[in-house]
Structure formats: C-alpha cells, structure tokens
Design goal:
Strand content: 15-25%
Number of strands: 10
Strand order of the largest sheet: 6-7-8-3-9-10
Order of helices and strands: EEEHEEHEHHHHEHEHEEHH
CATH architecture of the largest domain: 3-Layer(aba) Sandwich
Number of domains: 2
Structural class: alpha/beta
Distance between the termini: 30 Å
Number of helices: 10
Oligomer: single chain
Shape: globular
Length: 251
C-alpha cells in the first residue's frame, strides 16, 4: 500500500531522516516508534507532503507521490491527524467531520449559487455520513454539540472521524494517545482496530508502548533519523538494540 524508499530530509546541517526504507502492507496497522527527536513526525510530514524530501521516493499503491502536493495526496487516498489538535473550535462537531469530505463534494460556484436539488441531496448525505462516522468513533453523543464543548479525548476521536470522512486508503495517526487517560487510550485502541478491520491501512506514530504493542502488525523503530529495527511486536520487544535505545528492559 505504501512504500518509503531511501527517504531523507535535511534541515541545514541536521539530517532529520536518513535513508529510511519502510514497506507497509494493505490493511495492516504499522507503527513507527522511537525516542523524541528520532524523526517520526518528520517522516509523517514527508509522507503527507508537508515537507519536501532531500532524497528518496514515496509510493502509494505502486505510484510515486513524491512530487504531489498534500491535497493531491489526499485525493489519492491519504489522510492524517496531527500531534497537536487541529480542530475548528468555532464550528460544530458535526461540521468538523463534514469538512473532511470536502474533496469528494461538488463545490463548484454555479452549483453553490443555485443550490440545486442534487447539491442539497449531497449535503444531506454528507451530514448523515458524518453522524455515522461520529458514532463509529465513539462520540455519537456529541453530534449536536459545538467542538469547544467537547473533552480533549473526544476531540482526538473527532479528528479521526474527520480524517475518515475523506474515505482514505491510508490513515496516518500522529500520537493520537498523547494526553489521554487509560480508559480513553483503551477506547482509541479499539477504534484503531475497527478502522483496520474495514480495510484501511493505518500508520501509527505513538509513544504509548502498551497501545503500540497491542494493535500493531509490524513496527519500525527510528533512532537519530535512521531505521534501527523493524519487525513484529514480539521481535521488536526482544531486539537488544531497541531495548538499549528506547524501550528499556521493562517492556
């Protein structure tokens, strides 16, 4: 589904990502872990087009997307959430989810001015789908609320619902469990598994090792911008280099 080939990114004299190779299979949950500053979020920003790579290639379903803009990558089936909340607090929760579907809707000027029957029907369908996505994400009780009335944990799942509104083939989650309590993290774990069960490929960047080990099909470990190891959760947990660099002996 997603192939990262010898991907690199330099910021001045600092090499944040160095010749990283990762192959991500369709329908799996593939986690990327590593210490702070290992290059995890930089890698996600390269994959989604926010950063331009210094070298290497990114392939989505066998086709290079390295030269495409972020919105073009979204049109090809890539969606993401961010480490820091990116929610429109002046909108309702439902409207936030509907925003995620904008690339699939008819937003032509003439249709908007005339408010055609087809446009009204499409808007109604989009609203209905947004309601279902909120229920799927476990935040159905917030359908009639403003975003600024929701708890932090609910807002995290709102972002995921919005990302799913784009009908992605690949969903990239940047530290979705950050700031969540144990109950919220468990709910998030179940949601990620439900998403993958529907055939969506999930790329998870996360520090919560219990979550990572519980949901991942495979794990790639970064350290100082380089891939240190890769394998199943069991293989990564037992890797002496990973233990020394990141996990510690208690994992």
């Amino acid at each position: 589904m997603l192939a990262i080939r010898r991907l690199s990114k330099n910021f001045g004299g600092v090499q944040a990502v160095c010749d990283v190779d990762i192959e991500i299979e369709q329908g799996t949950i593939h986690s990327v872990i590593g210490p702070n500053g290992a290059g995890k979020t930089t890698l996600l920003n390269l994959v989604t087009g926010i950063y331009t790579p210094s070298g290497g290639d990114i392939l989505l379903q066998g086709n290079s997307i390295t030269a495409l803009s972020p919105n073009q990558r979204a049109q090809r089936g890539m969606s993401r959430t961010f480490q820091n909340l990116q929610v429109c607090m002046n909108m309702s929760a439902l409207e936030n989810v509907m925003v995620g579907a904008h690339l699939r809707l008819n937003h032509g000027l003439l249709s908007g001015l005339l408010r055609s029957r087809a446009l009204k029907a499409a808007d109604a369908a989009c609203r209905d789908e947004a309601v279902e996505l909120m229920r799927f994400a476990g935040i159905g009780e917030h359908v009639g609320r403003a975003a600024n009335e929701m708890s932090y944990g609910a807002l995290k799942r709102l972002e995921i619902a919005r990302a799913l509104a784009a009908h992605p083939a690949v969903l990239l989650l940047d530290e979705p469990a950050a700031g969540l309590n144990n109950t919220e993290t468990r709910d998030l774990e179940l949601l990620i598994q439900k998403i993958a069960a529907q055939g969506v490929t999930v790329v998870l960047v996360e520090h919560d090792m219990k979550l990572v080990m519980g949901v991942s099909s495979r794990i790639s470990v970064l350290d100082y911008g380089k891939k240190l190891a890769e394998g199943t959760p069991e293989q990564v947990r037992a890797n002496s280099d990973v233990i020394a660099a990141y996990l510690g002996p208690s994992i």
